[in-house]
Amino acid sequence: MMVHGKQLPISEPVFKLVSFRKKFSECDEMKKDLEEKYKKLKSIISMMDYVLIALSGGVDSNLLLRIVHEVLGNKILAASVISQIRSDDEVEWAAKLVNELEIEHIIFQTDELHIAEFNRNPVERCYLCKKNVLTLLTHLAVERKIKYILDGSNYDDLKQYRPGRKACAEFGIISPFVQAKFTKSDIRSLAKKFNLSAWDRPSQSCFMTRFPYDTPIDKHSIIKVKKAEELLSLFGLSQKRVRVFPDFVKLEVLPHEMNKLIENENRTRIIEYYRKLGFQNVHIDLTGYVSGSMDKEIAKEKISE
Which of 82, 189, 207, 259 shows the smallest number of beta carbons within 10 Å? Predict the structure, then answer.
């Protein structure tokens, strides 16, 4: 820039201002896109009367419950499942919002390890599990004369290996987030806006995902993994998985939290406690936590079909 014949340096804040304006514009577009999706979502829900919502306690189904309540009021029945293959606190998270909104909540106790073939941990494990749960919900819906059963599946699930989606299709389950093209990021953003306590809750998955496919699993295997992950919870980790293989266990945590595993006291506690559980060799995955890491090869095959 020339001022009265003198060369002045280009001010750095000029670039920062341009960058800020660009980001602000992008944020504005993202906000507008989310608002449009939200309008579409409410329009979809408004076409229904009384609904049954499959409530897992995760951010997806919690947000769905919150929005359906906004549109339909108390014309909602929520249903959750507790079992040994699920996290013990899932129903607690589900109950928080249900109690706040004063919605009727039915809780089923299931035992998936007694489903034929399920305890072999087959590739279609999630399909068998979902089919079992949806059979219960369908009977409940018929008993209560409820026409619509909703779940919290989102648009990103269509890009991942989700055999449970097959069961949803067979039972005619409605996934409003999928229809309105809500991504996981959209859901967390809107849940935060609604001030839902679960908006930043780490993604959960059943404990069968801790084992390779086609590995026989019993209740003792599940209990050991639960205890192994409970210890990691004491270290303030945002996300963690203990993957069990024949000769070792592999710990998956977020990369920036790996140091919490190798601090002298924590490392010693892990080694000693895991050996008591029967896990003699403990590895840390340097890649870090990856959702569905046991599905990677299968996902490639299935999604490309």
Answer: 259
